[in-house]
Amino acid sequence: MSPSVGMQKGALRIRLFIAGESPNSLAAQRNLQRVLKANPSLSAELEIVDVLKEPELGLRANVLVTPTLVKLTPPGERRIIGNLNDTGALVALLGVDHEP
Amino acid sequence: MKSRVREHGKTSLRRASTGISGFDELTGGGLPAGRVTVVLGDVGSGKTIFGMQALIAGARDFGEPGILVAFEERGQQVFENLHGFEWKIGAADQKKIGVVDAQLSQAVVHGGDFDIIGLLSMLSAKTKEMQAKRLLLDGLDVFLANLPDPLHARREVFRLREWLQENGATALITAKTGPDELRPVREYEFLQYMADCVVTLQHRVVGGTALRFLRVAKYRGADHSANEVPFSIGRRGIEVAPVHTTELRHAVSSERVSTGIERLDVMLAGGYYRGSSTLISGVPGTAKTTLATAFASAASNRKERTLLISFDESPEQIVRNVASVGIILAPHVKSGILKVCSLRSRAAGPEAHAARIRALLREHSAKNLVIDPISALAQAPADNLAEEAAIQILDLAKSQGITSVSTSLLGNRAAFSEETPIGISTVADTWMHLTYVNQGGERNRALTIIKSRGTGHSNQVRELILAASGVTLADVYSVDGEVLMGTLRWQREDEGRRADERAARDAGLREREAELALVETEARAQVIAGERAIREATLERIRVARQEEISQATANATELRRRRGADGSRRNSAKKVPRRSS
């Protein structure tokens, strides 16, 4: 979504798989946006995939549950499943220093 | 193969055939089509094999593409695990099965509540794309374990059920039960509730032998037997013990096949019926194997493919042993017409043995089957299963027109009774019993035909004689209701022969005397007849002479009256004569 500004922390590309407007999917988007906003130094390329509209992408990525957040780069794919209410896990994955 | 879908009863519940031998029969056609079946079982109980067998049968044999959703192992791994089976799927058919790998990596981080809405929508797309009619969700328990609490698990299971109902495919869900096999963990209670059909698989070790049982715990909308049924996993995958058919539909043959022993053929009015089953029971050493192999030899001589199953004795041993009594099997084994197979009785459970024998019968295209001894099935501790397995084998043989001869060993305890350890004597068409009879310091083998359906058989006991030249039965010699054998029989027979000769001579003499008497009588009859003729002739002559005399006298009197006077005075003169004289 927002293009990366710098490469100081390495290019961060993340993809969030959601299932339409289900409560967990909406919550995950909300939580993710909040953390990103709280860490303006973090330059992240976020892509949101709705598996209801693009099931093929979900299948290919082996997404079992929604929501699933996948960190694509830097290398070493990592995943978080869930609505991201547990921001500790999200913060750890993004590699930011502090919680919002 | 069966038709894919079968109408059943009033409910018109459609069935999806699983291709699993025995299971479709048990459930009246297979899984409920378009509905949900849950297969529960412990680790290694065969859940995945059951599911894959049904999925592959659908894709390969019934034109129903399917999707494997692999929760536990990767889909590719699941397919690789099937390589040992005969029904593993070819590359072309494998394209008819879609694979969705649905393992949640252990490394995945949990960051709050989640659901399977996404997965279901992806499955919907895949189902549509593949026109899938069958769905296997393998190892759902593995997925459910990721959910934080039973409440969440329940929520997702209900979500899944809703989706499945909408999806309309025949769904099969497998899930592990806890170590306490009979009481599934709480999540599975919902599973069982939501399912239309619940199948449980169990794997028990009894006395060192692994035994497998299948049970249809629930089948919505259909009558079904909820009893445990033994099953095995062999090269054909899962084979469920066939249900006992209450109606017997075996084609009945009136053709006789030789028992391999000429005198026994005579006793049985020509031999065993083709397609019948024969049981030969007896204590050790009474020549059961000899009798059974004589049949195998005769069948091989007729160029009929024959399978000889020997428990706990090697093929070489059998061939060598029976050669000593003139039963030569080696050339038949060499030519391949006779297949001798040794099984170790304790190596597997009765059902596994039965499955193996079924497979061997099929592989060898056997027309004849010898099992020596069938009682070996009861070596495993579950002897009620042994009986089931034995009946199954005989039933299968009959249904395929295979003539079978089985021996049954009796323990020492029941040495001289006619009770077999396995109740197959009721299934057998012919039952022969062998015993030792002690008489005059000898032990002789005695054969009794206890029953032989559809055959007028001799109820008498025969002596079985084994010699290098072969096997034969000796005529019985009974005295005072006791059958004599061995030397005693020979003595009695010898005495008997002499007595018979005397009797024959006496009879000849009496016959000749009688003949003579008859000839004499006939001669006398002729003489008397002659006398009678003479007397009749004499009588006739006398009568004729007398008649002539009378005629002459009358003629003389008339002449006299005519000469004396007028004709008219004849009456008056005649009247006057008596008056004058008085």
Topology:
The complex is a heterodimer of chains A (100) and B (582).
Chain A lengths: L11 E7 L4 H16 L5 E7 L4 H6 L7 E6 L4 E4 L5 H8 L6
Chain B lengths: L14 E2 L6 H4 L4 E2 L3 E6 L5 H15 L4 E5 L4 H6 L10 H4 L2 E5 L7 E2 L6 H14 L3 E5 L1 H5 L5 H18 L2 E7 L9 H9 L2 E10 L2 E11 L8 E7 L2 E4 L15 E2 L4 H6 L4 E2 L3 E6 L5 H14 L4 E6 L3 H9 L6 H6 L2 E6 L6 H15 L3 E5 L10 H17 L3 E7 L20 E10 L2 E11 L9 E6 L2 E5 L2 E3 L2 E3 L1 H79 L4 H13 L1
Parallel strand pairs in B: 3-8, 3-9, 4-5, 4-7, 7-8, 15-19, 15-20, 16-17, 16-18, 18-19
Antiparallel strand pairs in B: 1-2, 9-10, 10-11, 11-12, 13-14, 20-21, 21-22, 22-23, 24-25
What can you see in these coordinates?
The complex is a heterodimer of chains A (100) and B (582). The model of chain A is unreliable at 1-9 (pLDDT under 50). In chain A, strand 3 and strand 4 form a beta hairpin. Chain A has helices at 23-38, 55-60, 87-94; strands at 12-18, 44-50, 68-73, 78-81. Chain A has a single domain (12-94), classed as 3-Layer(aba) Sandwich (Glutaredoxin). Chain A is globular, with a radius of gyration of 13 Å. By secondary structure, chain A is an alpha+beta fold. Chain A starts with 11 loop residues before the first strand and ends in a 6-residue tail after the last helix. Chain B is α/β, with parallel strands linked by helices and 582 residues long. Chain B has a 9-stranded mixed beta sheet, sandwiched between helices. Chain B has a 9-stranded mixed beta sheet with strand order 17-16-18-19-15-20-21-22-23, sandwiched between helices. Chain B has a two-stranded antiparallel sheet with strand order 1-2. In chain B, helix 5 packs parallel to helix 7 (150-167), helix 7 packs parallel to helix 8 and helix 13 (350-364) packs parallel to helix 14 (383-399). Residues 1-11, 411-420 and 569-582 of chain B have low confidence and may be disordered. Strand 4 of chain A pairs parallel with strand 6 (109-110) of chain B.
